[in-house]
Amino acid sequence: MYSFEQLKVFVTVCECGSFSAAARKLKRAQSGVSQSVSNLEIALNQTLFDRSGNWPVLTAAGSALLPMAQSVLLQQLRLDQKVMALDADEEHDLIIAMDESLIEPQLLSRLAVLAEQFPMTQIEIVSASTFDIRTLISEGDAHIGVVFADGTMLEEAEFRSLGYSRFVTLAAPSHPLAQKTSVTDTDLRTYRQVVHRSSTGKELWFSYAISTQVWYANTHQLLLDLASEGIGWAIVPDKLAAPYLANGRLTELNVEYEPEGWVTTVDVIESRQYAGGPVHRAVLKLLNEAFEQHRL
């Protein structure tokens, strides 16, 4: 009978491309990895790899069984996560990761009640970009994340929509684009763009670089400051931009193909590796209440 460990080794060899690379990833001896795969082949009565060359190549049987092995391991992961959740009966800490542009004073005021409601729970609030937060959740380094939707699903997380956020296109009043009554796509491509990009080089689906001249920043606050200096135009959350528009440091551009701005979904994602308790549930309730005004 084969084991979960043997399936894990098999899948890892496929992902890494060699027994030696899989051994390094699994922190095991290469001989142990090779033996584990051989034992799996015996248990299944199938040859999984062609070992005649320098690198192991999946056989037809191996190719057919790989997606099934991956599915079994995913189900095992979900079972383990569920058991962990059932075993845990109290929370000692909770890490909330939020996209930096979604952290507002009103939201922090709501979260402040947790200090009195759960005085013995250590709460950490992390400010990061949406993509970096997805990594934190995926790797179990944060329990709850508040992010902009990007159309991807995380196997390690649950998600639900909280509301919507509107993004606007801005430039300094002295910028040539600010002098136009209507701005076209060609106009935007002509001038330097200041783009939000995560630490891993990812950009949001509606504000990625389209100009041939680009500056990057990893926070929307930096985008506002750079744009207000006349360096280029930028797409930023309207609530974050409001003070800059009010004091005249920035001007909203009338983009002809998106006159109302860009509207994107705000999601809350929850790590399946974490056993949610009363504090977790309280945070979700507060977030849901805080974003009521952001729903269409």
From TrEMBL:
InterPro entries according to UniProt: LysR_HTH_N, LysR_subst-bd, WH-like_DNA-bd_sf, WH_DNA-bd_sf
Any Pfam family hit: HTH_1
Keywords: DNA-binding, Transcription, Transcription regulation
SUPFAM superfamilies: Periplasmic binding protein-like II, Winged helix' DNA-binding domain
Entries under CDD domains matching the protein: PBP2_LTTR_substrate
UniProt-recorded Gene Ontology molecular function terms: DNA-binding transcription factor activity; transcription cis-regulatory region binding
PROSITE patterns: HTH_LYSR
Key word Transcription present: yes
Domain HTH lysR-type: 1-59
Family according to the record: Belongs to the LysR transcriptional regulatory family.
Name of this chain's protein: LysR family transcriptional regulator
Native species: Photobacterium aphoticum
